């Protein structure tokens, strides 16, 4: 048995605030704990929590199942929300090119392969986390700068129109009489 | 196991957000990646192309186009040229040179697709549009395309045409709205310019300035009196014309400036 003093899991400011914690279960049954301020960044989760009537007392006893998001994405999402839970609200963007600078911490967090990034965008879209959506889209958008269509096709893993058609044909064609 | 996802399968809200990070020129290569992205961009993400100057030169099987944008750091120029069995495209975007050979493609068709996509997204006034023709009979295919090619109306300050035959003028002029029309005869032979059809156009009536160089014209002088500034070459001018001009000049409130250079005729009228 270890004699080390017990280290609190939650961060100092959480203790100070006596935070409410929620439990989330991913599609592959991983369990995550997230603070109230962090979970509020997800409109979908916060609506759910409000509708379920979860309170500080019963939150940890009622884990929220999220069937559309796997553990890997949920881990990134929880990290992101905890990191940004005290951020000030940003003004609405116009239609023009964004001038915001992507913080280095977030650039690191989103340094994953494109397929994973697309999956993360789908999860983010489902959970409705505007800031994470902005950041993911910035990373994807930046990749497109100064590229040819051929280079983009490879970067974004897109088949050519011809390949796409062939794929669709082979998927929809049922074996029939030759002729 | 999650299903494989690629860019075109993302929801529209995400695609819109991604492309908001790109300017008009940066979005163009994405448009060419696949049908899904092209239709998304054309339907949901149309940016103003913000052109300032555009110039085209038309040769046999070869089209050179140069776009200058309101943002002076942005520049695009492209050469489309028919080579045996296909089309060679050389583009320079903000100084970056790219060359592609497109098998079994035609330079006019590729040029028209690219040009139309940029032209149709112009939303504000264009400072200058210039078209230069090389050769006389090589431009007919291009001229046939003009009506669909220039199918977007916005004000143009100056239209510069460098032509070798008069039919090149009307095909373009009837599709644009210039304040100032400048027509240059590349043959520099002062041949007669058939101007009757041009004078029927709204564009003729709406323009404020007219310059016709190296063509001789003969037309009633009244047809010119709405221009604030005119520089043309009449082969002959009657006394009636001259006195009318004088009258117009003295009665008009606006400052007008007619420059007429009649040729010294051996016949006395």
What can you see in these coordinates?
Chain A: InterPro entries: SKP1, SKP1-like, SKP1-like_dim_sf, SKP1/BTB/POZ_sf, Skp1_comp_dimer, Skp1_comp_POZ. Chain A: Belongs to the SKP1 family. The complex is a heterodimer of chains A (179) and B (269). Chain A is mainly alpha-helical and 179 residues long. Chain A has a single domain (14-85, 106-171), classed as Potassium Channel Kv1.1, Chain A, CATH 3.30.710. In chain A, 49% of the residues lie in helices and 7% in strands. Chain A has nine helices and three strands. Chain A has a three-stranded mixed sheet. In chain A, α4 crosses α6 and α6 (114-127) packs antiparallel against α7. The radius of gyration of chain A is 21 Å and the shape is globular. Chain B starts with 11 loop residues before the first helix and ends in a 9-residue tail after the last strand. Chain B has three domains: 9-47; 49-107, no CATH class; 125-269. The longest helix of chain B is centred in the middle third of the chain and has 13 residues, at 107-119. Chain B has 269 residues and is of the alpha/beta class. The model of chain B is unreliable at 265-269 (pLDDT under 50). Chain B is 29% helix and 32% strand. In chain B, α4 (107-119) runs parallel beside α5 (140-149). Chain B has helices at 12-19, 24-31, 35-44, 107-119, 140-149, 167-173, 196-200, 202-206, 239-251; strands at 51-59, 62-69, 75-83, 86-93, 96-103, 126-133, 155-163, 177-185, 191-192, 209-213, 215-216, 229-232, 257-260. The chains are: A mainly alpha (179), B alpha/beta (269). The A-B interface holds A 70, 93, 95-98, 115, 118-119, 121-122, 125, 133-134, 136-138, 140-142, 144-149, 152-153, 156-161, 164 and B 2, 4-11, 13-14, 17-23, 26, 29-30, 32-35, 37, 93, 96, 98, 100.
